């Protein structure tokens, strides 16, 4: 079909005297471009367009693209668009076809997967690869069979293929809220246009209401400039070898990757890759550094492991050696597991689990070769068995509540499936076998008085690695032995200067302290010979809380038969997943010493009766004096509070190290009696979309009571007066535009039949219930984070109780909740 005919329907639907959309004319082809436009028309959707046949083939994806391979998004085929539409961003006038705001949300190029063709589209099945700024990797478009009454409408499904770019369903549309061309939000694009609808959207009426609600706003404090330099190297934390997997919920467990420990220092396109000893190996890992530099990350210091994947898809040290020597074609991958600093802020003092939450939010979907290292809380034995069965090295177990320390500690433990250690090569013996030049190598490790002989290894060599190793050994040749070796072991040995470090797998050390059944894996160029000592597996530490819980059998929730001991056990179990939100934050406690049905009271100060695990921070009061407020920094602190009769933990919107600058906004949706929970959920979704329109990412949390909290993470820049003023004006503007649904005042008379948007949580000294906290209500409900997709299926705010602890732990580690509550964003400037 001629190009003009392909655009006939597009031109027929539009009055170009009214709309600024480009007319359907032949344009200059780019060959294989694609774009996605966020389109706020009658219904918010995303227009997905692929260049083909000289036009943009187009689909309206009703809920936007999803990174979850299990999530099939409806994509309704629309008319072909001209290539010039790839530059359109603006507002289509009300009353025109597609009237509403259009944002250029993503762009790039596309290609069919190898073995497929663009012609497959006509067959109703297109398997393709996207190289966009936001949409990457393999995708699939499938046409559905038409149903009766659909006429010419074509319904397709857009689905992500499970690859390195797959992730949570909401990672894309929930977090990417600005134009890839102009950096503007939807509201900024529509700033000079009339609103299409006020329900759940920001428009002129909403802007006017925000301005009307504004009182005497204090001058906005200037935002401090962020560090734009890649951070300096820091000594990494090292793990202690132990003989068994630690048990209990204090520990999180990760795969032990078989590669090179590396610290990634990044700031935008500037990237440095350091070894564990501080060597700058950026040139050796140039492809990986270049890929990370293209992600536009802020200033950050990321800890991880660089690996190469073997033929079985698992990390393989020998393959890594070949790639680094240019002898292998495999790609290098970085598995990131810690975040030491971000935007110039030191994060080492935060609990391990909190640093990982920030890392997950920072990396998002990562890239083809940069991955977030997942973990599980508790159940380390299960992961260990799975790794050993897969032939992997083992696992790393880390104290969830521990800060980062640049040394070897027992807060990080390693448990190995097979014994592997580093050894110094001190000599080699020639081989008399045909085609083999080297029979074995002699090993040593550093002891208290110098090098100590550790045996011979004669397997693991092949033509490729032995030839290169032999060249290096001959260059280090010396006449005499550099250590004491048994006479029978020193025959025909060619001695070398002890410079090379070898990675050796072996069965055990014999009674003579030499390796048994050893195998050469490769050289460790990132480690110095002087640092190689014998690793001896220590006894796995057992963490017994030194906080004793008395009266464990006392009933705290009579109707649910939950005792004080069970409440303490719950908080110990969820402590790891709760710490990112409660640790280092001033807290108020709801104490009910005799149980929830008896007298309960708030407490925010303490004279020391809670014990050493509950900390104090001095905070200035209105009268100019100071008071000591409570905070905790580990799981024992939570248990100490429970011992003192605490049921609920409520936190400030700021942390103790930066108490005047909030790191979150909370909109607590409190429905009047008689309102259905569906009304609350709809209100939460509408507020989410309104926040999106002004460029703010938000998250949902079931309060465990009647309502939903809409949580807006903030980079702590603005101070309390600005944050309070914004929350006030935002809430009053919503109430003004939809007075039948919302009220922003506490008056019970004005709340009748409405939802109270409680913005008062966002002022200095106010608190809000924290994630995973048990509420002092019937049946011990829990405040629980949920994804926006999950919220659709929840039927009450108290959907989870203390009895659901196993489910809560499993959910916390799920893909859907990865990075929940974390986003780098500041308040829009109104």
Automatic annotation (TrEMBL):
GO biological process: DNA recombination; DNA repair
Reactions it catalyzes: ATP + (deoxyribonucleotide)n-3'-hydroxyl + 5'-phospho-(deoxyribonucleotide)m = (deoxyribonucleotide)n+m + AMP + diphosphate
InterPro entries: DNA_ligase_ATP-dep_C, DNA_ligase_ATP-dep_cent, LigD_ligase_dom, LigD_PE_domain, LigD_pol_dom, NA-bd_OB-fold, NHEJ_ligase_prk, NHEJ_LigD
CDD domains (UniProt xref): Adenylation_DNA_ligase_LigD_LigC, OBF_DNA_ligase_LigD, PaeLigD_Pol_like
Pfam families: DNA_ligase_A_C, DNA_ligase_A_M, LigD_N, LigD_Prim-Pol
Name of the protein: DNA ligase (ATP)
Source organism superkingdom: Bacteria
Cofactor(s) the record lists: Mn(2+)
GO MF annotations in UniProt: ATP binding; DNA binding; DNA ligase (ATP) activity; DNA-directed DNA polymerase activity; exonuclease activity; metal ion binding
Transferase keyword on record: yes
Gene3D superfamilies (UniProt xref): 3.30.1490.70, DNA ligase/mRNA capping enzyme, DNA primase, PRIM domain, Nucleic acid-binding proteins
Its EC number(s): 6.5.1.1
Key words of the record: ATP-binding, DNA damage, DNA recombination, DNA repair, DNA-binding, DNA-directed DNA polymerase, Exonuclease, Hydrolase, Ligase, Manganese, Metal-binding, Multifunctional enzyme, Nuclease, Nucleotide-binding, Nucleotidyltransferase, Transferase
NCBIfam families (UniProt xref): LigD_PE_dom (TIGR02777), ligD_pol (TIGR02778), NHEJ_ligase_lig (TIGR02779), NHEJ_ligase_prk (TIGR02776), PRK05972.1 (NF004628)
Record has DNA-binding as a keyword: yes
ATP-dependent DNA ligase family profile domain segment(s): 325-416
